[in-house]
Amino acid sequence: MMPEQLPFLKFPLPEDILKAKWCGDFSRAKRIIDLRLKDPKTPECLKERLKLEQSLLEGLQLDYTLSEEEGLALIRRDIPDFTLEELRTLEDSSAVDWIYREGKPCLSRKFYDTLLKVYPDIAKRAGITEEISPEKRMLLENREEMREKGFAKWHIHLEESLHIASEAFRPGKLLKVHLPVPKDAVNMQNIRILSTSPTAKLIAPPDAPQRTVYFEANEAENHPFTVEYEYDSFVEYHALDPKAVLSEQPSFDTGEQPPHICFTPFLKALCRELSGDETNPLLLARRFYDYCTTQVTYSYMREYMAIEQIPEYAALNLKGDCGVQALLFITLCRLAGIPARWQSGLFVTPYSQGSHDWAQFYIAPYGWLFADPSFGGSGYRAHFEELHQHYFGNLDPFRMAANSEFQRELSPRKNQPRIDPYDNQRGEAEYEDKGLKWNEAQRELKLLEMRKLS
């Protein structure tokens, strides 16, 4: 799936393909798509949509892999008395993500991770204690320190690698790889790319919207692609006052960006309902943040390429992961005329390192502010109101920002479909005739140094 193809996702599918898709008869859906693609009566624009659907169907089959019986057995390894009726109640309430495959419910491969992360009663039954983790304590301490000092600054030194799965590796064939690296941003300073292995062919400019180091290799043996870098993460603390908001606000970053940041009838109605009579943009943004953090529940997601309209998915299903929640917040802000944009990369602490997405919104006179609905929602669910408050307007310094825009090209441009056509946090790889999928390349992170700066 290429960026220029993505707007075609807004086109509807023929009914016979939809019927086959949502009852899980993927072989029939593929047959019908093949017939439509060969039919001279099919418009070229619809053919582009059908080609995208072929990729979406592949993604669904990779993400939904567990039968109800297998899912129940997975839970019962930790909770022996867990019942099928409990599982189906969670399915009906949308707490467990599922689709039909061959007419039977099939659960997301990540469904149990979601239950343990989001539902304390289930985690407790599984033997997970409710003590504050060292990482959570680090976030709480950082929030207090930022309020006292007015900022936080950390030096972070990472090594990132991409390993090609042995079954996907082609000895001697030209392989092209992109790995995300830190980019210029309001919260990123003193960025240094220290080394690459093999030697990178190109390092994208610091202001690239999705910055990467780019490799080309045709090795006989399967070696990882590695980049080592360091940077300073600097964030200021903002004590926001609605009375200080200026009457005139800018209008950049307020438009649509199909297929996801779109002003659909439902999202327009939701924005009006949440806005009510409020006109202050800071208070409006807070209403949208509160909706995303208190009404939308965190959930691990299938691959984004298998979701046709991400913000609307979040609002309709009241669930989503960090990127889904961020896109809903961004879209609601833009609907209200509040500039909003994407930022993503990594969340980095001594305890864990992993992909993460968040948002920025602009309020004069403050300028660009941060919003992290995922971390704010986590604070809300855990009854840490100070964290729920902090992640509206502020961020922590435990980030690596590689992407400042959603749905943008890499440099140099990929020729084959991307693992993630919207964002780049895990890396991308392709041969001349094939783009590798997420299960054919594994990203690894190694934290080499992390220290607080005065």
**Helicity, as a percent range:** 25-40%
Any idea what the radius of gyration is?
22 Å
Q: Strand order within the widest sheet?
A: 7-8-5-17-18
CATH class of the largest domain: Alpha Beta
Provide the β-strand percentage band.
Answer: 25-35%
CATH architecture grouping of the largest domain: Roll
CATH topology of the largest domain: C8orf32 fold
Number of DSSP helices? 14
Number of strands: 19
The biggest sheet, with number of strands, parallel, antiparallel or mixed sense and barrel status, is: 5 strands, antiparallel
Shape: globular
Overall pLDDT, averaged?
A: 95
Topology overview:
Elements: H1 15-22, H2 26-38, H3 44-63, E1 64-67, H4 68-76, H5 84-92, E2 98-101, E3 104-108, H6 111-118, H7 120-125, H8 134-149, E4 151-164, E5 175-180, E6 188-197, E7 202-203, E8 212-217, E9 225-236, H9 265-275, H10 281-294, E10 297-298, H11 310-317, E11 319-320, H12 322-335, E12 340-348, E13 353-363, E14 367-371, H13 373-381, H14 385-390, E15 392-393, E16 399-403, E17 428-431, E18 434-435, E19 441-452
Parallel strand pairs: 10-11
Antiparallel strand pairs: 1-3, 2-3, 4-9, 4-19, 5-8, 5-17, 6-9, 7-8, 12-13, 12-16, 13-14, 14-15, 17-18
Helix pairs in contact: 1-2, 2-3, 9-12, 10-12, 10-13, 11-12
Describe the structure.
- 33% of the residues lie in helices and 26% in strands.
- It has 454 residues and is an alpha+beta fold.
- The chain folds into three domains: 130 residues, no CATH class; 149 residues, no CATH class; 156 residues, Roll (C8orf32 fold), CATH 3.10.620.30.
- The protein has a five-stranded antiparallel sheet with strand order 7-8-5-17-18, with no helix packed on it. Strands 15-14-13-12-16 form a five-stranded antiparallel sheet.
- It is globular.
- The termini are far apart.
- 41% of the residues are buried.
- The mean pLDDT is 95.
